[in-house]
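Let us practice reading a record.
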Amino acid sequence: MLYTLLPARRKYGDFYQEYSSRIRAYQHGDFDARALLESTKKYAAENIPFYKNKDASQELSQFGIIDKDIISSQKELFVNSKLSNFFLQSNTGGTSGNPFAFYLHRGMSRSKEKAHFDWYWGQFSYERGDKVLMLRGAPLKDNKLFEYQAIDNKLAASCYQLNSGNIESLMKAIKNFRPKFIHAYPSSLKTFTLLMQNKNYEAPPLQAIFLGSEYLSSQDRKLFEAYYTARVVNWYGHSELLVHAGNCQFSNDYHIYPFYGHVELITEGNNINQPGKVGKIIGTGFDNQVMPLIRYDTGDLAEYSNSGQCKCGFKGYSFGKIHGREQNYIVLNDKTEVSVTAFIFGQHFEEFNKMREIQLVQDREGYLLVRIVPNELFSIENIKQLKEKMARSVSHKIDVSIELVESTEKTLMGKHRILLQNINNH
């Protein structure tokens, strides 16, 4: 418990304070986003092999656009090998089902993320140490339904176990815990909310609900706002930590925060500046010296808002709509619904490093076919390991089969589909 009393700098590292100072400079009108971008370009040109022939004094566009495939095929060219002690390996299933392994900067990336969200949530009256109910992330130890996490003062509820048979037990724990905030995937919160409504439970009194990692539909926003009578806050971000854009106290637009990373919206090779036109989200990250990514295609689509300056004082670009992060569910043998975001993206399986694509196919409850397009690192042993991890995460309430394929089924537009759900009403 003494850990919770330590100052933020001691708990989260020196960069926590440095990044917090950057936010304050932005708030006081004393922040130069251009200088930070130029510094990133210069560092990459001097230290990262992939960028060694780039002229950092030229416009950003001369760097070209990179994506997961380009990086994965020559990863050693994207890192500063002199800083190998600071490599913090991370991976993601990718919202489209294209796995990707990369490095964050040990001692900086996590400190920045903590400082950023302490500030961002703080706009909604959150203070460090406030009680938070969490409905997201990896399975809990021993597949518990819920557990208290003292370090962050959170009650973590499992996205993998929750159903009509155990909602009463969770509600008793929530009532005793008395959270001020909820942090969840939209899909997980929807499952939780519908279960509570079906049991005629009253919603816990909350100050705000924080939702990330998935698209939040207007219909689900209305559902949450009506049931909880609290501000529903949604944001856009991703594991590579290049872009953050989020709702504020007054608007459902997604303000793009220029002190976090640099954002471009591009279609057919050209930058979009006007609202209402859909383009690819291209991000350039700050504060990752071990693997700086410049003009990275996130794989997501968005369009700018036409709202102009916001009541909160924000004056920059905002996304009006973000495309391509749909909510999907798999169904276990006891009819428990588990979001794909939690089941795949939230677990960061190390096997993601060994595959090019992953696709889930479900034809009946309690059974899942996993199609994998392997890369050269994938082995037969990985099949057994992945099957066991997936089944164990949901208390073996699903039978998993894995099929190695050369390609996965795409949409008519050639977009990858992470889930082919063939059960009625899903």
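A brief commentary: The chain has a mean pLDDT of 90.
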